[in-house]
């Protein structure tokens, strides 16, 4: 789950980059896998999404956002879930514990 505390403030200027995303002209289902999708179907869908990201004018902003909020799902900025997890490292285990 994305960490709400890591999200930037509500200023619309911080989110304007999303209006320029190449993904806005594509089916959002391409960027997020359906439940149970595995193997070739998963890889083909993810590669198609990454091709769209490859020509995106806001790819860097998108990836920076996904990494900063530890976005757990989907293709963001040309990186899939596993790729982002590898870059981010493990989440702190104690962050959500209650006393």
UniProtKB/TrEMBL annotation:
PROSITE patterns, A to Z: 4FE4S_WBL
Family matches, as InterPro entries: 4FE4S_WBL (IPR034768), Whib (IPR003482)
Keyword Hydrolase recorded: no
Binding site residues for [4Fe-4S] cluster: 23, 53, 56, 62
Domain of life: Bacteria
Alphabetical keyword list: 4Fe-4S, Cytoplasm, Disulfide bond, DNA-binding, Iron, Iron-sulfur, Metal-binding, Transcription, Transcription regulation
Main location: cytoplasm
Stated role: Acts as a transcriptional regulator. Probably redox-responsive. The apo- but not holo-form probably binds DNA.
Protein name, entry field: Transcriptional regulator WhiB
């Amino acid at each position: 789950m994305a960490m709400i505390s890591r999200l930037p403030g509500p200023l619309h200027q911080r989110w304007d980059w999303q209006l320029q995303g190449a993904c806005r002209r594509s089916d959002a289902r391409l960027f997020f896998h359906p439940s149970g999708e595995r193997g070739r179907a998963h890889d083909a869908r993810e590669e198609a999404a990454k091709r769209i990201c490859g020509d995106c004018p806001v790819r860097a902003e998108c990836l920076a956002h996904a990494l900063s909020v530890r976005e757990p799902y989907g293709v963001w900025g040309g990186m899939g879930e596993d790729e982002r997890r590898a870059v981010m490292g493990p989440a702190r285990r104690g962050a959500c514990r209650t006393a």
